[in-house]
Design a protein that fits this description.
globular, DNA polymerase IV, single chain, DNA-directed DNA polymerase activity, 13 helices, 4 domains, 3-stranded mixed beta sheet, alpha+beta, DNA repair, Alpha-Beta Plaits, DNA polymerase, domain 1, MutS, DNA mismatch repair protein, domain I
Length: about 350
């Protein structure tokens, strides 16, 4: 989906249309969870502090998130997907992989299916979606970002390897900011640069991720679309463009991360017992703090409360925080009707 949270807000409030909108924290504190395309023209992006966003775009309008509405729209989209294939691998509320090799409508063209899905999403939700069509997950992901917003792009087997060679590695799905920076230090700026290095070298530099980088540089990705994949953990993290120094700012920044983890749990019907807080400081030192419950976390409030307790133990700070992450492991199937709640909602 295109600027999903912000687009929903602009759809539901005509006054916001055509204006720079940020979904998330307040003007003084907090972190941007999503930005409209009008805001992105000023350099406003998700995960940046709200004060930085306001400095970049003085006319920026902040809107409180409405996750119940976003989830409802997501369910509409999933229902549309299910008309075409049962092989759906959700990535988040607004994104999924679909395997349409053998689809429910017998349509031979994946591009035609993508166009039909985009048209149905527009008709039923009044929102726009972008699609990437290709022969593997890595290239489909690249293609989905290539013509945003409201676009479609197709990468055929013939053009796949050459397309990868021209792209900066920072645009590769699976290459985060820290990895991209390391690659650049090693002289790897594009897919072609990555392709020149042997597998052994990439394994030496990037460990278990080395083989993945080796093959995607050649346009090869054998991972299947898995509707029934079993997760060992569920997590989310944000890297901030400006370091966080106060407990208030860190609390605000943690909210959308906790929300994202809980959404994963809700959509997958799983609950976890072990909570891990990940913190990376301004000097790139990284620490984790974990807590294991006797029973799976039953509510989002439980997860938020325990995450905040782990976070508060780190204050006062000696150095700024550049990244926060939350993950749940020791996953069980959803048994919320059988498990007692750990605490009252905050």
């Amino acid at each position: 989906m295109d600027a999903f949270f912000a687009s929903v807000e602009q759809r539901d409030n005509p006054w916001l249309r055509g204006k720079p909108v940020a979904v998330g924290g307040s003007r003084e504190r907090g972190v941007v969870a999503a930005a409209s395309y009008e805001a992105r023209e000023f350099g406003v992006r998700s995960a940046i502090p709200s004060v930085t966003a306001k400095r970049k775009c003085p006319d920026l309008i902040f809107v409180k998130p409405r996750f119940d509405v976003y989830r409802a729209v997501s369910q509409q989209m999933r229902a549309i997907f299910a008309e075409y294939t049962a092989i759906i691998e959700p990535l988040s509320l607004d994104e999924a992989y679909l395997d349409v090799t053998e689809n429910l409508k017998g349509i031979v063209s994946a591009t035609e299916i993508a166009e039909q899905i985009r048209a149905k999403i527009r008709a039923e939700t009044k929102l726009t979606a972008s699609a990437g069509v290709s022969y593997n997950k890595f290239l489909a992901k690249l293609a989905s970002d290539h013509r945003k917003p409201d676009g479609i792009f197709v990468i055929t087997p013939k053009m796949g390897p050459a397309f990868v060679e021209t792209l900066p590695v920072r645009k590769f799905h699976g290459v985060g900011p820290a990895t991209a920076a390391k690659m650049n230090r090693l002289g790897i700026a594009t897919g072609l640069d990555l392709k020149t290095h042997p597998l052994a070298y990439l394994q030496e530099q990037f460990g278990k991720s080395g083989p993945y980088y080796y093959w995607i540089a050649r346009g090869i990705d054998e991972r299947p679309v898995r509707a029934d994949r079993i997760r060992k953990s569920v997590g989310a993290e944000n890297t901030f463009s400006a370091d966080l120094f106060t407990l208030e700012a860190a609390r605000d920044a943690l909210q959308p991360i906790v929300e994202k983890v809980w959404r994963h749990c809700e959509s997958a019907g799983t609950r976890g017992r072990t909570l891990t807080l990940k913190v990376k400081y301004a000097d790139f030192q990284q620490i984790t703090r974990s807590w294991t419950s006797a029973a799976p976390f039953a509510t989002r409030s439980d997860l938020e409360r325990q995450s905040l307790e782990l976070l508060e133990c780190l204050f006062p700070l000696e150095k700024g925080i550049r990244l926060l992450g939350v993950s749940l492991s020791s996953l069980d199937e959803d048994q919320t009707n059988e498990q007692p709640q750990l605490s009252l909602a905050l």
